[in-house]
Amino acid sequence: MSQSLKQQLKANMIAAMKSKDKPRLGTIRLINSAIKQREVDERIELTDEDVVVILDKMLKQRRESIRQYTEHGRDELAAQEEFEITVIQEYMPEALSEAEIQQMIADAMEKTGAQTMRDMGKVMEILKPKMQGKADMAVVSGLIKKSLG
Fold first, then answer.
1. Residue 1: its pLDDT value, please?
2. Whole-number Å distance between alpha carbons of 29 and 120
3. Contact call for residues 96 and 135 (beta carbons, < 8 A)
4. Same-domain pairing of 78 and 28
5. pLDDT in tens, 77-112
6. Cα–Cα dist 96/20, whole Å
7. Average pLDDT, the chain
8. Which of 42, 61, 131, 142 suits a disulfide with 135, CB 3.0-4.6 Å?
9. CA nearest 141: which of 115, 127, 130?
10. Quick one: 106 and 62 in the same domain?
11. Structural domain harbouring 58
C-alpha cells in the first residue's frame, strides 16, 4: 500500500531538514500545521481526501495573494507565494484534462437533468467531491454556466 499524504509530508519534512532546504521545509511545515489545526479543532483523523481539500484551499489563498502582491509591486512576496504553490502542488492529485472535465460535466448534467442556470447547484454538488483538487472549480463553474446558458 502506498503512503498516505500525511506520511509522505512527514518523510519529506525530515528530508528537507536533513538537506537544510529551509524554504521547502517552511512550506511543508505550513501544510502540516494546517492539517494539525483541523484535526485538533474537529477532533478527527484526516483522510487523504480531507488533506487534498486543505491543500486546495491553501493553493487558492496563495493565488489570491500573488494577485494582490503583483498589483502592489511586491514581486519578492509574490515569488515566495509562487514557490509555496510549487511545493503544495507536489501533494495534489493529478489534474484532470479539459476533455475529462467536459465529460464529467456532461454526465452530471445528464444525471441531474439540468437544463437552466437554476440547476447549476445540483451539477456542482455532484462534481465538487469528484473534482476537488483535480480541477480549478472556478473554471469548472464557468464551463457549467456556458453549458447551461
1. 43
2. 37
3. yes
4. yes
5. 999 999 999 999 999 988 899 899 999 999 999 999
6. 34
7. 93
8. 131
9. 127
10. no
11. 5-89
Instruction: Write out the E strands in the chain.
Output: none
Q: Is the pTM of this model over 0.85?
A: no
- Residue with C-alpha cell 437554476? 118
HSE-CB at 29 with a 13 A cutoff on CA atoms is: 9
What's the CATH number where 68 sits? 1.10.1510.10
- 112 and 66, same structural domain? no
Whether 12 and 85 share a structural domain: yes
Split into its structural domains, the chain has a count of 2
Domain at 135, CATH number = 1.10.10.410
Whether the Cβ atoms of residue 144 and residue 123 lie closer than 8 Å to each other: yes
> For residues 140 and 93, what is the distance between their CA atoms, to the nearest angstrom?
17
Half-sphere exposure of 78 (CA within 13 A, CB side): 11
